Amino acid sequence: MGKVVDLPRNEEGISAALGILKQQFGEKFQSGQSVREQHGHTTTWIRNQAPDAVVFVRSTEEVSDVVKVCAAHRVPVIAYGTGTSLEGHVNAPAGGVCIDLTEMNQIVAVHAEDLDCVVQPGVTREQLNTYLRDQGLFFPIDPGANASLGGMASTRASGTNAVRYGTMKDNVLALEVVLPSGEVIRTASRAKKSSAGYDLTRLMVGAEGTLGIITEITLKLQGIPEAMSSARCSFETVDDACQAVMATIQYGIPVARIELLDAMSVGAANAYSKLDLPETPLLLLEFHGSENSVSEQAEMFGSIAEEFGGSGFDWTARPEDRTKLWQARHDMYWASMGLRPGAKGISTDVCVPISRLAECVTAAQEKAKELNLLAPIVGHVGDGNFHALPLVDMEDADEVERADAFVSWLNDLAISMDGTCTGEHGIGQGKKPYLLRELGGAVDVMVAVKQAIDPDNIMNPGKII
Amino acid sequence: MGKVVDLPRNEEGISAALGILKQQFGEKFQSGQSVREQHGHTTTWIRNQAPDAVVFVRSTEEVSDVVKVCAAHRVPVIAYGTGTSLEGHVNAPAGGVCIDLTEMNQIVAVHAEDLDCVVQPGVTREQLNTYLRDQGLFFPIDPGANASLGGMASTRASGTNAVRYGTMKDNVLALEVVLPSGEVIRTASRAKKSSAGYDLTRLMVGAEGTLGIITEITLKLQGIPEAMSSARCSFETVDDACQAVMATIQYGIPVARIELLDAMSVGAANAYSKLDLPETPLLLLEFHGSENSVSEQAEMFGSIAEEFGGSGFDWTARPEDRTKLWQARHDMYWASMGLRPGAKGISTDVCVPISRLAECVTAAQEKAKELNLLAPIVGHVGDGNFHALPLVDMEDADEVERADAFVSWLNDLAISMDGTCTGEHGIGQGKKPYLLRELGGAVDVMVAVKQAIDPDNIMNPGKII
């Protein structure tokens, strides 16, 4: 746990590349320790492996220039958006150059008639949605953090709205990518669908910057629904709540969000967000559609919930009530951390077929108890995806070991249920062993693709494979 | 037009492989001329290039066995489903062995609770939907032909329902694939979403059998909607009809189908399907949802249609009326052919951003007129995708040349509008020059991926790249 390895460094190449980049980029080149460490991975249990320098770029040409210098000297290149990823994605285990894309934050075009837009990778989802609001449009993917869209594409992010609107793989139409050679390609047109050759868009989405650096993204947009409503309902057991979720999906109710909080998480939310919810498993839902449709959806869910012993069912279309509920959901990470101040949260994100969800969540609760770990659970349960978050005293070697055993056990359990060890966070450094257990020989194909596109392994080395 | 080239043949290898396969597969190995020609491409303008032999397989192991023999002797392998693809996908320009997958037609599992199923590649979409009906489930992708699901995955097929349910890329959860080495991999788990490494599922979907042979497919399913309704509406011009489509999509009406027939196509449908529709541009729509929702959707569309001068607006939830309407739409290929008996139909499938659709369709009509070609148009217009179908006397060299010029002009026009030359048919042999014009340097990345996975180029050579 936390024991990421350092990889061999190409000292000569790094030194040469840094010299050239410093001259070429002036003040946009920085190599002070604090800047470097800020660009290594710090938000979770994985230790920081800082790059040797950071270049703050403003254009595709500048990205290409940096990559060309690094390619010539076989120096690692790591793309950086907001640093909110959770599996060591921006660490530099072999050193190298971090390309900070936060200043590439232009919204290049909004094609309202086509329901799409073109953005630079440093645009964050909140920035985009603020910009779009006046045009009656929104971008639905919401991973919680105000992540950059380049980072979200690179980790194939999803979150609360994915049950209705899909993940980044479903919402990226096309990419501009700087390849490991520095060459710039476009992966697709703006057409809504295409059968034009291999799907390079989907190959780059989720590649975690290991095949190239995304410098422009064409995204699908949605019209802001005429109406939205939210609902909540408490259940006696996780199993009852999950059965209600399964029925909701099977009935084809087009829920926009359907989130589970286990009893421990509800307790945390009550304390952090000053709520007074019953401390039993809770479902939070959101419905999008016409006025009629959202009330119809809420009522239909209400009937289903009743069937599975739901209580305290309540729905509202009042914006302030909706906001309060979802703010509490969004604050769950901090609320959970509040259960044990000073501890580190070790984020997991297994995703299983929905028929196995109740079993998987219940088993995770029991296993945590057995290992004497505090591990609240929240989940994007409409997709079978949930986060158990062991809160660990990193100074306690025995507890760290137990947490490690828990994570390993949980990932293996999900894999054994024909699920995945990562529904939305990605592999990065943290989940590499599980990828192999999950997909076996397919990982050899990934290695072949990586070698074909990045033969010198300069693009974010040490991640995925 | 129709001038596909023959590629160099590895006579020695082919002879050796055929000898081994004949012994190994007995009656399941066939090399008679008529069987071979049936397995080459015959349904469109592209001339037949028959394989040297056909092996009728029944299991993944048998596919792997054939591929291993072919790999050892560097002999081309071409997968065959129903042969309904349109761009020479099953032709054998360098000879080799066709693997006929029609007997791999088992529905392996239906997981109703998870809304997914596992099928062999020879299962057709109609076979699957017949099987699912009693369970209240359906598979929504409908390319018109009763294609095999392996073939549909391989061409990234879509069709009339894609506007609501997406294309094959959106509906395949995981694949089992026999690699060019004969090794068998699984690309993903049954989880609804995943961030586990490179998206090999999406890499194989649309790869047209050039990276491996799909031997098992895990598909997302949908619950059969509580209610369905259909609507039709005539417009004075293609522009009016397209404006109505754009407004419908922008308003977020979740249409399940929205199809355009131009005036010439309506004439063809009237003659073929014995209808009496006004011979002006027509939209056909289908709505899925609850009873309330489908009537609400139909009424909303009615208001939009009125705004754009629509006339004869009519909607129905009566199954027999719906069936008649959609049968006529499905028969459009034959109805169009009826406009000029004896001619060959040259299928095109450009897809453009919806804001350019009216312009693109209108320009195509004018260009066809200018070139003195008969080219009825139908389209999956909610996605900006349409088919202009020049009906050509293949004995008339001048007309063939004009048709060739038309197709080339249309593909280039779509590309210039930031669209694609192929929304759903694939590249195959027919569209290779356009792929390069559309995606430029990205094609080099496709070549690198192909070489990495299939270094001896035995998998469906001469297609895509």
Automatic annotation (TrEMBL), chains A, B:
Known EC number: 1.1.2.4
UniProt family annotation: Belongs to the FAD-binding oxidoreductase/transferase type 4 family.
Protein name: D-lactate dehydrogenase (cytochrome)
InterPro entries: FAD-bd_oxidored_4_C, FAD-bd_PCMH, FAD-bd_PCMH-like_sf, FAD-bd_PCMH_sub2, FAD-linked_Oxase-like_C, Oxid_FAD_bind_N, Vanillyl_alc_oxidase_C-sub2
Organism annotation: Shimia aestuarii
Domain FAD-binding PCMH-type span(s) in chain numbering: 47-224
Oxidoreductase found in the keyword field: yes
Top EC class of this enzyme: oxidoreductase
Annotated GO biological process: lactate catabolic process
Pfam families: FAD-oxidase_C, FAD_binding_4
Molecular function via GO: D-lactate dehydrogenase (cytochrome) activity; D-lactate dehydrogenase (NAD+) activity; FAD binding
Co-factor(s): FAD
Keyword entries, A-Z: FAD, Flavoprotein, Oxidoreductase, Transit peptide
